[in-house]
TrEMBL record:
Signal sequence extent: none
EC number from the UniProt entry: 2.7.1.176
Protein family according to the UniProt entry: Belongs to the zeta toxin family.
Listed Pfam families: Zeta_toxin
Domain Zeta toxin: 3-102
The protein's name: UDP-N-acetylglucosamine kinase
Species whose genome carries this gene: Selenomonas sputigena (strain ATCC 35185 / DSM 20758 / CCUG 44933 / VPI D19B-28)
UniProt catalytic activity: UDP-N-acetyl-alpha-D-glucosamine + ATP = UDP-N-acetyl-alpha-D-glucosamine 3'-phosphate + ADP + H(+)
Keywords annotated in UniProt: ATP-binding, Nucleotide-binding
MF GO annotations: ATP binding; kinase activity
EC top class, as a word: transferase
């Protein structure tokens, strides 16, 4: 096992459950490792569009992995609860919060500030450039969905394409995409 050879390790996951990251962190600490908690804070709607975008881009390369919307939403719902529990556990030397672009917050012990910054980030409004990037991603996904429908597919990872389209329209409306900004 790599941990027995004292390699530096990065463990990645969605925190869908609390048990797995908790157990692995405890096992590694028992072996003498120090642990840091790093989380990427992304608004739920942008995260979902990202799963679709990655699926269709990956599909062209033979590596696409679709995510069922219900599963995505379950993970997004549980993430703040599990993240707070891990942050409060005292198992981590430090806690770091990132966007997809950069680190935005770091602390050794201030769980409340860490979680407040997480909430601010996942609830934030987009600036003009970010809104334009999201609009382009949604357009790409819309075109890819149309291609899937031409091929006779009705669902992506058990989520009906019609439901995906409704969700994309709701995101565009809530983010004022395609409207005067």
């Amino acid at each position: 096992m790599l941990s027995d050879q004292k390699y530096n390790l990065i463990l990645e996951g969605t925190f869908r459950t609390l048990e797995t990251p908790w157990r692995i962190t405890e096992e590694l600490k028992f072996k003498g490792y120090t642990a840091e908690l790093h989380a990427i804070a992304v608004p739920k709607d942008i995260s979902y569009v990202g799963t679709l975008d990655r699926y269709f881009v990956g599909k062209t390369k033979g590596t696409g992995r679709a995510v069922d919307k219900r599963h995505h939403d379950l993970v997004a719902e549980k993430l703040p609860v599990h993240l707070k529990a891990l942050a409060k556990s005292g198992m981590f030397r430090s806690m770091h919060l990132h966007t997809r672009e950069r680190e935005i917050f770091s602390t050794e012990h201030d769980v409340e500030a860490f979680m407040e910054q997480f909430q601010r980030e996942v609830e934030r409004r987009l600036d003009f450039a970010q809104g334009n990037r999201l609009a382009k991603r949604i357009d790409f996904v819309d075109q890819a969905l149309a291609e899937e429908e031409r091929r006779g597919l009705a669902a992506i990872a058990e989520t009906p394409i019609a439901e995906i389209r409704r969700e994309l329209q709701a995101i565009k409306k809530s983010r004022n995409i395609g409207m005067e900004r």
